Amino acid sequence: MITVAFDSGGAAAAGPWIALAKPTHPALIDVEHRVAELYEMVNVPMAVWIDEAGRIVRPAEPSSASDGFRQMDRKTFALAPEIMAEYGRRAEVYKDALRDWVRRGAASPHVLSPDEVASRTHGPSAADARAHACFALGRHLAQAGRADEAQACFAEAVLLAPENWSIRRQALWFESPEAPGGPKFWSAVDALGKRSYYRPVRMRGLDES
Amino acid sequence: MVTLLSSNGTSRLDGARVDGGDLWIPISELAQLGWELRPEGACRGDVCVPIPKAREHDFVRDEAGGRLFNLTELAALRREPVVRSERGDVFAIGVASDERAALLRGGEAPDFALPDLEGRIHRLSEHRGKKVFLVSWASW
C-alpha cells in the first residue's frame, strides 16, 4: 500500500495525520497533486490497483466512499446510524475484494481486463489538462503571496474541470486554510443536486449489482 | 525574468521575453528545459518535434542579443496547454491530454517520485514485482 496526500501545504498540513497513523507503508506527500493528474484521481479518497508488472488492473475509483456524507449534520459532523452502518458495509465489501486480489491475483473477479481498464479511463480531456496547468500556476502564485491572482487561476481551473474536487478543495484551503470544509464547500456540494460527489464504484456489492 | 512551471519542474528563465502573449527564450536556455535545437527540429532526448519549414519564423528569431526560441509555439505544436499570470512573469505549460489519455488507457502505471514525511523520496517503480494499492487522501 502506498498512500498519497494531495496537500499543497506539504508536511505541515499532512504531517500531523501521518504521525498519528504511524503507517508501516510509504505515506507520501504530493504538494503538486502530481499523482492526481497522472492517475485521474479527481477526489479523495480514490484508489488504483497496480499489479506486479506495473499494469493498472483497476483505474481510479473512490474505493468504498459514497455520497452518504452529504447528509451529515454540518455543525456536529454527526451521521445517522444507518448511514454509518452502510459506510461500514461498503468498506468491508471493498476490503474483501482487495484481499481477494492480494490472494488470487489475476484470477480475482475484481481484476479488470485491459479493455475494461481502458473503457473505465475517462481522459484526461483537453479541459482537464488546462485545469491542471491553471492549478499549477495558481499554486505557485499563492505561495508567492499573490492570493488574488491565484484565486483567479483556481476559479478558471474549477470552471474547466468542475468534477475535480481535489483542485476545488485545495483552492478552498489556499483561500481559507483554517476552514477549507466550510460553507463554500457545502454550497458547492449542494449545487450538485442529484449529481454525484463521488463517482459510483463499479464493483459488485457497491454501486453495481 | 520569467518563471516556467512544466513537467520539468520550476525553471527560472533569465533571458526570457514575452511578446504578444508568447514566451521567447534564448536558445542557450533551452538546455535547462531538456530541449535542444537540431536540424530535425526541437529535440528532447531521442524525440524530435519537426518545426514546419514555412513557419520557422514563428519559432526562431534573431535579435541583437542572439537567437530566441518561442516556447509557447512549441507547446501549441505539441497540443500542450499554456497559461500565464496577468503580469506575464509566470507561465505554466501542461501536458498534451490526448497523449496522456492514450498512455493511461494503455494500462501502464505511470511512474512518480514523491517524498515521505522525512523527505525520503519513494518511486512507484521501486515496488515492481509487488502489488500496489495506491490510495489518495488529504488533510483539507
Shape of chain A: globular
In which order are the strands of the major sheet of chain A placed? 1-2
Which whole number gives the mean pLDDT of chain B?
A: 95
Task: State the oligomer.
Answer: heterodimer
**Structural domains of chain A: how many:** 2
- Total DSSP helices of chain B: 3
Instruction: Give the number of DSSP strands of chain B.
Output: 14
Main beta sheet strand tally, sense and closure of chain B? 4 strands, mixed
Q: State the share of residues found in helices of chain A, binned by percent.
A: 40-55%
- For the termini of chain B, the CA-CA separation is 34 Å
* Unreliable residue stretches of chain B: none
The SSE order of chain A reads EHEHEEHHHHHH
- What is the overall silhouette of chain B? globular
First and last CA, distance of chain A: 27 Å
The pLDDT mean of chain A sits at 96
Structural class of chain B: mainly beta
| Overall number of structural domains of chain B | 1
Low-confidence stretches of chain A: none
Task: Set out the fold topology.
The complex is a heterodimer of chains A (209) and B (140).
Chain A: E1 2-5, H1 10-21, E2 27-29, H2 34-39, E3 47-50, E4 56-61, H3 81-104, H4 114-120, H5 126-143, H6 147-160, H7 165-175, H8 183-190
Parallel strand pairs in A: 1-2
Antiparallel strand pairs in A: 3-4
Chain B: E1 2-6, E2 9-13, E3 17-19, E4 22-26, E5 36-38, E6 41-44, E7 47-49, H1 56-59, E8 60-63, E9 66-70, H2 71-77, E10 82-84, E11 90-93, H3 97-105, E12 113-115, E13 121-123, E14 132-137
Parallel strand pairs in B: 1-11
Antiparallel strand pairs in B: 1-2, 3-4, 4-9, 5-6, 6-7, 8-9, 10-11, 12-13
